[in-house]
What does this fold into?
Amino acid sequence: MAAAAVKLTDEFLRCTICTEVLQEPCTLVCYHTFCRKCVVNYTKTKPEAISAKSLLCPFCSKMTKVSEPDKPVEEWADDVKPSFVIQGLLDSFGPGSKDMTNCQYCKEIGKATPAVSWCSVCDDAVCEECAAMHKRIPATRNHEVIIFTGDTKTLQKRKVMCEEHKNECIEFVCKDCKKLICQKCCIVYHRKCSSVVTIESELTEMKTKLMTKRKSLLTDEQMRKDRVREQKLRLTEVSESSSELESLIRSSCDMAREKIKQKENTLINKLKEATEIHLGQLKADIKAGEMSIQMYHQEVELIDKGLGTECQVDMYRFCQWFEEERQEEAVVNETVDKIIYEQDMDKLVNVLDNLPLGDIEVVYKGNEMHGDGVFDVKGTPVLHNTINIRLPSDNSSSTPLDVMVMVVNNTHTLVVIDDGNGNLKSFYTRNNKACQSNIDVGSRPCNIAKLSNNQVIVSISNERKLVTVGVTPDLVHLSTINTSKHYYGLTALTSSTLAAGSLSLRVWILLMRRGTF
It folds into this structure.
């Protein structure tokens, strides 16, 4: 009977979360039963269950709605009743199903001795004397025993038996071999090991380690929760930002299309005007030609008439009239010969390819990252590659003082200040071929700042000027701006505002006004 009760308890009356006999059981809608405290603690670790105001089954993940969701989570399971079958089994075979007041063994011999513990295997309450005997008997010495302390029950330490020496309890740990062992194992296998200690002596250190690890895990969990929350906010921000950028792109393209449409109308109107002039000139030429033909015809008729006369005097007068007739001077006007549409398709394609509508630049975080996405400031940099900025046209040794990487027309471009040669250089790859460009900017270029996607500004340290340069990615001089001071370090706050450092104890904020800072 006791064995059957133990099997029943192990298979049906034990909580699968804490693996102990059910305490204050509650049965969820899926008919799985757990300790009330265990299912509440499990639910608290699942945000989806908290937001759904439901208890979550650890076994099948089904949700059980609570009757009063406004209460604290700790009270959600108070109204969830246990299955009447489970409750009936607990009442009949659980720890409280028998008389726990008096010792069962003493009761059999007619004594009424108060019980101090209960054996979960034998399913019997025993007194202190019988408990001591119960512990000495080999068949029962390793049974799981619950000690009564007032109204509470404390589970006695469960003994774990050695796999090799079946009758020996595991009580030691070999720190050299990192293995749990019994007393016989110590004698047989670990005599030469220098650090064999009892498990109990390591208990404080083990608890400290576990508590430290627990604290670390809770910190990591909270950091990950914060990270996920930030990423969810970023998700919304990125979606909204993408919509705004899409609107800007469409607006830029609409503006470009409008300009192209205006250019189309201008060309067509110009063609129509030229065609109208050409057609007018052709019609005038045709009209003049027809009048000349008519006049020639009339003169031929006059000659025929002169030839037909028999009067010699009249014939003489006709000849004299034609000889004295002055030919009209032809008026030479500028006439249209033909209309040509001059088009350079290569130039058009190049302009369209480099149409400055803008560019999409993806900013990536550094590769040297921890798992939480934070740059490792204590990390050791490793040389990945080098670029030789020396060009055949350089007269002096190259001195790269400042560099900048830009993405221009989908081309990654490295822009470098070469102080030694007084120029600005760009390096990029096109059609799998390394390309470079350079322009002179002054005798001592010092610092470079980005003004826009395809413009930079350079400070000249020994001259009172700043130089703006276009990056296509070839370099194009745009302007030279005279300044009232010598500026060195630069950073662009906006496309028309700079923060600049000089030899004075100030940082100057420079605003672009009419071509000067």
